[in-house]
Design goal:
The complex is a heterodimer. By secondary structure, chain A is of the alpha+beta class. Chain A is about 30% helix and about 20% strand. Chain A has one domain (about 1-70): Roll (Ubiquitin-like (UB roll)), CATH 3.10.20. Chain A has a 5-stranded mixed β-sheet with strand order 2-1-5-3-4, with no helix packed on it. Chain B has a single domain (about 1-125), classed as Alpha-Beta Complex (Aldehyde Oxidoreductase, domain 3), CATH 3.90.1170.40. Chain B contains 3 helices and 10 strands; from the N terminus they run E-H-E-E-E-E-H-E-E-E-H-E-E. The longest helix of chain B is centred in the last third of the chain and has 18 residues, at about 100-115. Classes of the chains: A alpha+beta, B alpha+beta. Chains A and B meet through helix 1 of A and strand 5, helix 2, helix 3 and strand 9 of B.
Chain lengths: ~80, ~140
C-alpha cells in the first residue's frame, strides 16, 4: 500500500512511501514508526487520513483506500 | 466558492460571489504574510496542500456553518506556492442578513480552517533558512 506524505515528511521521504498492507489505522501508524524510525517524533503528532477524511486509530483500511499522513496543519 | 490557487487573490472575486440583495452584512477577512513573528523575520512563506482533502474540508466547514441559514453565503480562497510579505494567503468572505452574524461566521470559519484544513507553510528567513511552521496552541494569539 502506498501512503501520501506532505510538508517535512515529503521533503525527507518523497511524496509517497510504500508499506506492507495494514488492516487498521493503528497498524499503519506503528508500521510508519517501525519503517521510518528517523521520523518517529514527527509521526507521533500526525493524523492519518483515509479517503481524504481524518480517521480514528481503530478505523479499518481496505485495499484501494487513499491513505495520507497529515502533519499538524498551518494554513492561513 | 472554494478555490486553491497559485494566483494572487482578488478580493472582488470573493465579494462578487457572496453579495446578495437579501444580505445586509458582508465581511471579508484576509490573512496576509506577516513580516515579524516575535523577533523572527519572515521574507516569504511557501504553502503546500493535500489539495483534494483541503477542498473537501473547506466545503464541510462551510456546509456546517451555513446549515439552517439559507441566506448565508461563503467564499474561500487559499493560495499555494511561494508568497512574499504582505501578500494575502487566505481570504474568507461571508454574507448574512445582519452584520453580527456575518462577523461571527467569518471568524469561526477562519478558526476552523486554521485547525482542520490540510495546508502547510514553510517559513523563509532573510538568511535563507527554512522551517515548516507549527500551529500555535489554541490559547495563544489567533
Amino acid at each position: 500500500m502506498h501512503i501520501h506524505l506532505f510538508a517535512s515528511h515529503k521533503e525527507q521521504f518523497g511524496p509517497t512511501v510504500e508499506l506492507p498492507d495494514c488492516a487498521t489505522v493503528a497498524e499503519l501508524a506503528s508500521a510508519l514508526a517501525q519503517h521510518y524510525p528517523d521520523a518517529r517524533p514527527l509521526w507521533a503528532v500526525c493524523r492519518i487520513a483515509v479517503n481524504q477524511a481524518f480517521a480514528d486509530e481503530g478505523s479499518r483500511i481496505v485495499p484501494g483506500d487513499e491513505l495520507a499522513v497529515i502533519p499538524p496543519v498551518s494554513g492561513g | 466558492m472554494i478555490r486553491l490557487t497559485h494566483d494572487p487573490i482578488q478580493s472582488s472575486d470573493l465579494l462578487d460571489a457572496v453579495r446578495d440583495s437579501r444580505c445586509g452584512g458582508v465581511v471579508l477577512f484576509l490573512g496576509t504574510v506577516r513580516e515579524l513573528t516575535g523577533e523572527d523575520v519572515t521574507v516569504a512563506l511557501e504553502y503546500e496542500a493535500y489539495a483534494p482533502m483541503a477542498e473537501r474540508k473547506l466545503a464541510e466547514i462551510i456546509a456546517e456553518l451555513a446549515d439552517g441559514k439559507p441566506l448565508v453565503k461563503f467564499a474561500v480562497i487559499h493560495r499555494l506556492g511561494r508568497l512574499e510579505v504582505g501578500e494575502a494567503a487566505v481570504a474568507v468572505a461571508v454574507s448574512a442578513p445582519h452584520r453580527t452574524e456575518a462577523f461571527e461566521l467569518c471568524r469561526t470559519a477562519m478558526d476552523r480552517i486554521k485547525d482542520q484544513v490540510p495546508i502547510w507553510k514553510k517559513d523563509h528567513t532573510p538568511t535563507g533558512e527554512t522551517s515548516w511552521v507549527l500551529p500555535a496552541p489554541a490559547d495563544e494569539i489567533r
